[in-house]
Model the fold of this input.
Amino acid sequence: IENPKHIEIQIIADEFGNCVYLGERDCSIQRRHQKLIEESPSTVLDPIIREKMGQVAVAAAKAVNYVNAGTIEFLFDKQRNFYFLEMNTRLQVEHPVTELVTRIDLVKEQILVASGQPLSFTQNDIPFCGHAIECRINAEDVFNGFLPDTGTITFLQEPHGNGVRVDSGISINSEVTVHFDPMLAKLITYGKNRTEAIEKMSRALKNYIIQGVKTNIPFH
Done:
């Protein structure tokens, strides 16, 4: 498949047979098969193919009596065909972009499902509005072959403002070691359209300062 897109569909299902899809995330921007940037909605899907992929994802989850939040991942080709890649049976790193465009708290909903509650919404209740982008912030030396970097966080300035969200795992004096994944945080921006989300992301990256370890912020 030449120049495929990596499109994933977020689903969530309860133990009462209810299962819905919450749109897609485009995760095509990757390095060494690791996602770097994710966004929702995708620029290559139209409402018809989005609904078709969503229905396939729900059918796949129901076929195995799945209960939980989960993601069905697909490859999408130039002829607009899509092919099953894998299912991640968990809430994924990039779930914030879906939360922003659907205004649904997936973490809360997952806990409710796990406690035996039915979904608090149906497929028709899910709004899709605006555009969201996530950049994964990793401890990597982008000027030295993307080698993982370690050290102690000596200074931290996180961006903020309307439509800017930071899900972070670090603070000042946090130690970044070789024993864990190099991801430090996730930077997510939301706008009324893709252009606005990109502009907010550009500003947020310029205002995101981490000292003590090298990061991939310059690369983003």
